[in-house]
Amino acid sequence: ASPFAAVDMAPRDPILGITEAFNADKNPNKVNLGVGVYYDDNGKVPLLECVKKSEAQLMEKATPRTYLPIEGLAAYDKAVQELVFGADSAIVQEKRAVTAQALGGTGALKLGADFLKRFAPESQVWISDPSWENHRALFESAGFKVNNYPYYDPATRGVNFAGMLSALKEMPKGSIVVLHACCHNPTGADLTDDQWTDVIKVVSERGLIPFLDMAYQGFGDGIDEDGKVVRRFAETGGAMFVSNSFSKSFSLYGERVGALSIVATSAEEAARVLSQLKRVIRTNYSNPPTHGGQVVATALSTPELRKVWEDELAGMRVRIREMRKALVSKLKEKAPSHDFDFVIKQRGMFSYSGLTKEQVGRLRDEFSIYAVDTGRICVAALNSRNIDAVVDAIAKVL
Ligand code: PMP
């Protein structure tokens, strides 16, 4: 018998399944709002100018592709650390943080999860309800029990903050709490500054381990504004994990550029942490690839290119906000009895639109408009050409 005789078919990835159905749809006016990718107003994934310019510089230098250090390109790790914590932050100055280049945000989460399983094996992991669909699977595959803390409140289309806070207050010491640093995926609902104050206080007083996932820095209110939560956590002086990704902010999805930063309580502790993190990396994939890290390091650390990147990222952020506003005002016209104002308050690429599974099904079957069954739509997939068709269709299924 084959050694694979007992291998079951794994369930299909629900979101990739939407794209498969979309690709097979012959309607020329089809729209895919199920994706997690930024499209420009022409419906294309952009190749950023800052990336083209960084690549041109790198081509010019034409350096050989030797192995990178286990923790990645030093210039990249430094640039990421300064971006995430601030170049003049106490953490960077006191060398309390270690940063390792990782294979996207996913790779960063996986490194953090594997590291934690070695040094906090008894801890359990808590993720928001709902969360990015890979959080649970990723921490479970690292060997953790994964629980949900209350997060989204469908009644207010905002955060069930009382529920979240009381869950945090009941978690055992040493619990690992995964928090979306900005632009919550999938809901788009973020905490207010005051709510973060309470969360930071409870996490630090109760000795929980915060794991901040920041996949959308710059898509909410700005690069620094979105990074504020990480910096506020850092000011507590406690240990923390930060995974960040440039997939979206540099439109470099396929290059797999992200990083894991671990903040320790002293430089000496940080050095020990890095030595162990390197073992995790070494036994997973040895060292990261060169190209994406070089592109991002060049763009972040060359002032002219940095400016180009910041402007391009601002352009993406502003376009998404404009689409939010357009969606709301057009829906006000077409479906005046429904209130969609919450869409403007949401941050990042996504919106929990409040559409039901049945309504999402009708959008797909009758209008070739694809969204996630939960009602999540990617606002970054709307553009000036498809928005009217989307609004008309939503008005019809409401
Ligand atoms: N965390 C969250 C919340 C995400 O939404 C994503 C990706 N969409 C990731 C992590 C993973 O990022 P990457 O694609 O860089 O692996």
Automatic annotation (TrEMBL):
Record-listed E.C. numbers: 2.6.1.-
Cofactor: pyridoxal 5'-phosphate
Principal EC category: transferase
Keyword Transferase set for record: yes
Keywords: Aminotransferase, Pyridoxal phosphate, Transferase
GO function term, MF aspect, one: pyridoxal phosphate binding
GO-annotated biological processes: L-phenylalanine biosynthetic process from chorismate via phenylpyruvate
Pfam assignment, any one: Aminotran_1_2
Hydrolase among keywords: no
Gene3D superfamilies: Aspartate Aminotransferase, domain 1, Type I PLP-dependent aspartate aminotransferase-like (Major domain)
GO CC annotation terms, alphabetical: cytosol
Domain Aminotransferase class I/classII large: 29-394
NCBIfam families, per database record: PRK09257.1
Sequence similarity: Belongs to the class-I pyridoxal-phosphate-dependent aminotransferase family.
Subunit note: Homodimer.
Protein's UniProt name: Aminotransferase
Originating species: Noviherbaspirillum galbum
